[in-house]
């Protein structure tokens, strides 16, 4: 038996994809289409360890999906065997709190949610529509980044703004990166050999986008991202938390438009705004060279992360595991060590050798004596999506 599933992650100018056999969880193909909307874009299609690169024009997501099917026809595997398509969808609003089969009506509801996730949902919807045209005979399902956080309690998701305004416009915290937080938190239970619902944990998903979650006996109770994926931690190009008064200040005192403010906070802030680099390999090098801006940027990043961890430990009333995942979390022993050192007052101790050893395996990096287990668990959002899709189609 095999259940190949095509997973699509459509952004505004790119589509990442994988085909995973949901039975043995093998990756059968993967690839990325870049610069959709430009005259000249690229597609890199990897199958059997070989990457096939082509330059093509992708005026829109529809054309990109057509070329994607041509790559599968030419280099395999055959898309005819695909049993379902899973679409990463950033914002499910309050309406979609679990993986959902897509039909016309559902897609219409999703379109109506777009103002809630202006950066992310429109491309995902364009990707869904295009994929349904090129693969009309298989079920398509939407996997929501917000779904894992549908369990947040009202005191965590409610903003202190007028109730009527919030109710009318769906203004509340939603939380994002849920697919990763769900996958990683379950993996932590496996690694520790404990039932998922038997302990409290914190997961730090630190990639270009970054977020942190608190999971109380298997139930997500806090998340750092909010109404949009801009809130919370310092990210590659996103500010994370700022004084909400900053928006009015920038508009009134600096004369910036709402669009300028939005672009500045989403695309020109974070580590990029602080030190001109987003990649932690570059940032670590700059810090090593004594660069002041990069040193401060890293200190701000670490301070914000630590303040969330402290807050979530208090909300959970204690924690048994804190886990680092995604590009920055998985690859930065110095950052992990800096956080662990600040938690030493709670009895946290790292095994420096394990922390410094590069590995793709999930692992505990604290000592056996540590009061809280510290882990590194590589995230795998595509695999989590494949499992979700398989379950949704009842395969
Ligand atoms: P996203 O999925 O949000 O685009 P990733 O989880 O892939 O992001 O994380 C990408 C980031 O991970 C890079 O920008 C970089 O900062 C960091 N990163 C990746 N590899 C390394 C490494 N070897 N050393 C330090 N940082 C790394």
Automatic annotation (TrEMBL):
Cofactor(s) recorded for this entry are: Mg(2+); Mn(2+)
Show the GO MF annotations.
Answer: acetate kinase activity; ATP binding; magnesium ion binding
Q: Which GO terms describe its cellular component?
A: cytoplasm
Residues that bind Mg(2+), according to the entry? 9, 381
- Cofactor binding remark: Mg(2+). Can also accept Mn(2+).
Sites binding substrate sit at: 88
The EC code for this enzyme is 2.7.2.1
Keyword Cytoplasm belongs to the record? yes
Quote the record's binding site residues for ATP: 16, 205-209, 279-281, 327-331
Query: Where along the chain is the active site annotated?
Result: 145
What GO biological process terms are annotated to this protein in UniProt?
acetate metabolic process; acetyl-CoA biosynthetic process
- The feature of type site (Transition state stabilizer) is located at 177, 238
So what does this one do? Catalyzes the formation of acetyl phosphate from acetate and ATP. Can also catalyze the reverse reaction.
Similarity remark: Belongs to the acetokinase family.
> What is the protein's name according to its record?
Acetate kinase
From the UniProt record, report the name of the gene that encodes this protein: ackA
């Amino acid at each position: 038996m095999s259940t190949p599933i095509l997973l699509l992650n459509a952004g505004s100018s790119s589509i990442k994809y994988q085909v995973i056999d949901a039975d043995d969880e093998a990756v059968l193909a993967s690839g990325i289409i870049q610069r959709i909307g430009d005259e000249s874009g690229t597609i890199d299609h990897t199958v059997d360890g070989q990457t096939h690169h082509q330059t093509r024009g992708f005026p829109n997501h529809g054309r990109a999906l057509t070329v994607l099917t041509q790559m599968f026809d030419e280099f395999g595997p055959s898309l005819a065997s695909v049993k379902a398509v899973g679409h990463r969808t950033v914002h499910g609003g309050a309406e979609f709190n679990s993986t959902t089969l897509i039909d016309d009506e559902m897609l219409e509801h999703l379109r109506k949610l777009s103002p809630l996730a202006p950066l992310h949902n429109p491309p995902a919807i364009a990707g869904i529509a295009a994929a349904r045209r090129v693969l009309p005979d298989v079920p398509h399902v939407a996997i929501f980044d917000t779904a894992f956080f549908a369990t947040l309690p009202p005191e965590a998701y409610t903003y202190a703004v007028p109730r009527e305004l919030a109710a009318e416009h769906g203004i509340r915290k939603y939380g994002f990166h849920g697919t990763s937080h769900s996958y990683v938190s379950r993996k932590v239970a496996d690694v520790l050999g404990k039932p998922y619902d038997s302990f409290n944990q914190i997961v730090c998903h630190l990639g270009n986008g970054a977020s942190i979650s608190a999971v109380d006996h298997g139930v997500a109770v806090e998340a750092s991202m909010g109404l949009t994926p801009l809130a919370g931690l310092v990210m590659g190009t996103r500010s994370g938390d700022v004084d909400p008064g900053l928006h009015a200040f920038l508009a009134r005192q600096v004369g910036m438009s709402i669009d300028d403010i939005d672009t500045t906070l989403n695309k020109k802030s974070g580590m990029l705004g602080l030190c001109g680099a987003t990649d932690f390999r570059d940032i670590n090098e700059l810090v090593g060279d004594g660069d002041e801006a990069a040193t401060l940027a890293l200190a701000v990043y670490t301070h914000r992360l630590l303040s969330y961890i402290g807050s979530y430990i208090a909300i959970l009333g204690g924690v048994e595991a804190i886990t680092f995942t995604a590009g920055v979390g998985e690859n930065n022993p110095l950052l992990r060590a800096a956080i662990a050192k600040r938690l030493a007052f709670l009895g946290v101790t790292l095994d420096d050798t394990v922390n410094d050893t590069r590995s793709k395996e999930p692992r505990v990096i604290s000592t056996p004596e540590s009061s809280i287990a510290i882990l590194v668990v590589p995230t795998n959002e595509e695999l989590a999506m494949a499992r979700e899709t398989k379950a949704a189609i009842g395969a």
